[in-house]
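User: Okay, second chain of the day. Same drill as before: sequence in, structure tokens out.
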Amino acid sequence: MRDAIMRLVALVVVAAAAACARSAAVTSSPGGIAPSAGNERGAFVVTLGTDTVTVEQYTRAGNRIEGDLIQRQPITTIGHYVIVLNADGTPQRVDYAVRRPDGSVPPNAPRSVTVLYGPDTVTTQVVRDTIITTKVAAKGAFPYFANAFGPYELWLARLRATRTDTATIPLLAVGSRNPPNPFSVRFLGGDTVRVWYFGSPQYVRFDREGRIQGVDATQTTVKVFTRRQPSVDIQSIASAFAAAEEAGRGFGTSASLRDTARASVAGSSISVDYGRPALRGRDVWQRGVLGDTIWRTGANAATEFSTSADLLMNGQTIPAGKYTLWTHATPTGSYELIFNKQTGQWGTIYNAQQDLVRIPLEVSSLTSPVDRFTIAIDSQGSVGALRLAWGTKQLSLPFTVKR
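Assistant: Same drill. Structure tokens below.
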């Protein structure tokens, strides 16, 4: 079943690459690009390493954009959206509904969501057993769906039409009760726009007509890559993903499992709570760890280290308590483990001013690749070691329990 899915998605990706190769060069100024107009259609395939996480197809006819969005977390769903635009290309209304591939409503999902865009306020109506209406201040907001890029072309067209090189775009997640997130956007010249995505750069490539051809988000926390292609068979792909779930080979509730490593060393209790991302065909140690210079040493929420006794690590004392662990990839190719005093935060929130200490790590090669990032705690008498293994590399840090 997995091979069949991969062959199906591979056809999509190959076609996407061919479409990207045919895209024309553009002028260095967004003002020199003709606005996208008329009827058109397109599709996007979003991958995390070798795994497909999202598939989208959309059609535009005049001021109406209609699209379908396959998401694979926590289960496979198809989201159907309809966006109605004002004459100036700004959103007027969004209607959105999520269904399973068999047409049923997913557990805990609303029956539908309607978003109405006013001059300064956005009104959201979520239909469950009752209609829940919320209003937020959101002047100039554009709709946002996770890993959907048809709607991205709306604000891109707006910026090109107004000949704006740099701007802040308020993106409001459809169905959210929260205020919009401000995304800073800058045209880099040529065919690329840089979008600051929750503090990290996302690079959007487009053609002469302003159609998005690809999105590189590998430097962000989501680590995905997006390619455009002419069209996809939404129902067939979604059904294949759902069948894989039924067979126990679904994408899962999270791309990264949560786990805890525990050990008793000389009577002290030591533990590490962390997320376990998978390789998914990636060279995870390229340019550090997935391109990061400061890595959360895992995935999702910040990795938390706890010790009931003072520890001695490479001449540095780690007092008993709780810390978050961060891995620093140095320019010379070596690694340091950072013990940080801030705890309980998401893994994208790192405050260097809270650092307790940075300690060099020992680097070694593994004979057998480790698919999921794994932290282990070795114990022998009053001596122990932290071991971080992923792919073909292991980082180690010996320690002793202070008496």
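Residues 2-241 form one domain.

User: Thanks, on to the next one.
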